[in-house]
Automatic annotation (TrEMBL):
It comes from Ruegeria halocynthiae. Pfam families: DUF3035. It comes from the Bacteria. This is Beta-barrel assembly machine subunit BamF. Residues 149-171 are annotated as: Disordered.
């Protein structure tokens, strides 16, 4: 009589474990430590050139020392902060790139379409992976066919006569 109970308990445990849907990635933190990404460093305080031309204070608004991570990243990579404005004109250095990439037209809802395609793809891939007794990271498994093999791409470029930088040895 003990064996059927054990089988029943294991079956119930597997059924309950299969009901969880954490998506493809298990992004739970491994411990109860601080979240280092929740703290943004502020810029150092500086003295203005002329105290007569200070902007009026805006309660609840921005401060000169407030961090702007996107703008800082764009500037660090050689761009300009003006490029973050969606209504800004295209810089002359990027005109050829924009013309070449939009030669077949640019649909207005590209982001929504690719988001929906990715949701459908992940739903198809996770259909049979919901039954699991232990948390498993399924992200790499789901996108395995979509990933680019760097060594194959490097070799294909070399065979076409394109100079490539040195690459690490094959694993």
């Amino acid at each position: 009589m003990r064996m059927p109970r054990a089988i029943l308990v294991l079956t119930l445990a597997a059924s309950v474990a299969g009901c969880s849907d954490i998506g493809l990635r298990n992004l739970e933190p491994p411990g109860k430590g601080p979240d280092e990404f929740s703290v943004l460093p502020v810029k150092p305080l500086t003295q203005p050139q002329d105290y007569a031309f200070l902007p009026a204070p805006t309660p609840g608004g921005e401060n000169l020392t407030d961090p702007h991570p996107k703008a800082d990243a764009v500037v660090a990579l050689g761009g300009s902060e003006a490029a973050l404005n969606p209504n800004a004109p295209i810089p002359s250095g990027d005109a050829a790139l924009v013309t070449a990439s939009s030669r077949y037209g640019v649909p207005a809802n590209t982001r929504q379409v690719t988001t929906q395609e990715d949701v459908d793809f992940r739903k198809r891939k996770s259909r049979w992976t919901r039954l699991r007794l232990f948390p498993v990271d399924r992200y790499a498994q789901a996108y395995e066919r979509e990933a680019i093999n760097a060594n194959n791409a490097n070799e294909a470029a070399r065979q076409r006569g394109i100079e490539t930088p040195s690459a690490p040895p094959l694993e």
